[in-house]
Amino acid sequence: DADVTQTPRNRITKTGKRIMLECSQTKGHDRMYWYRQDPGLGLQLIYYSFDVKDINKGEISDGYSVSRQAQAKFSLSLESAIPNQTALYFCATSDNMNTEAFFGQGTRLTVV
Amino acid sequence: TQLLEQSPQFLSIQEGENLTVYCNSSSVFSSLQWYRQEPGEGPVLLVTVVTGGEVKKLKRLTFQFGDARKDSSLHITAAQPGDTGLYLCADNYGQNFVFGPGTRLSVLP
After folding, report:
1. Taking CA atoms, which of A16, A60, B2, B87 is between 20 and 30 Å from B34?
2. Which tens digit of pLDDT belongs to each residue from A64-74?
3. Which residues of B35-65 are buried (b: 16+ CB within 10 A; e: fewer)?
4. Is B96–A42 a contact, with Cβ atoms under 8 angstroms apart?
């Protein structure tokens, strides 16, 4: 089994719908991240969490929210999806020294 | 805000050729990481370099960190189709990881 698991892998949704992307990890890491990847823009940080009670905005948090349900689970929500949120979304974890970022396989989201 | 630039954006070469890709930062790196992302997968760490002037080798891949710790290069010798992917540089400066836009490499058989 993968160390970082994202569900769903692919999702098509309509404009205005609420959608949740889920991430779970077996690495035992405290730090978890949500990134968005668009062609030519690299990975942009949406939100990050350093423990269950800690939530921080990244550079592109508008239109998104997150929940850290447990050390192993970090979910990303789009309250009212819009077409320019169509992208590849990645969850990642790291240890407290940021030694390495471990990524899930990504969720390809299309908003129509 | 730190900005990372990578060049070239795209590179398509024949199997067996050599290539170099570059990463530049607007500020000094805390430590520089190179990741490779294959189609349909998340990025995977290749190497971390910390000291200015440092050179690390990973089989056919050679990573060099600039003396001023603001730039890096990745050289691949005798590229193979399995090297195809998106190469990302990143700075892990303690709180977060900052990623460059990547170089998309295609190695044709």
Report:
1. A60
2. 999 999 999 99
3. bbbeeeebbebbbbbeeeebeeeeeebbbbb
4. no
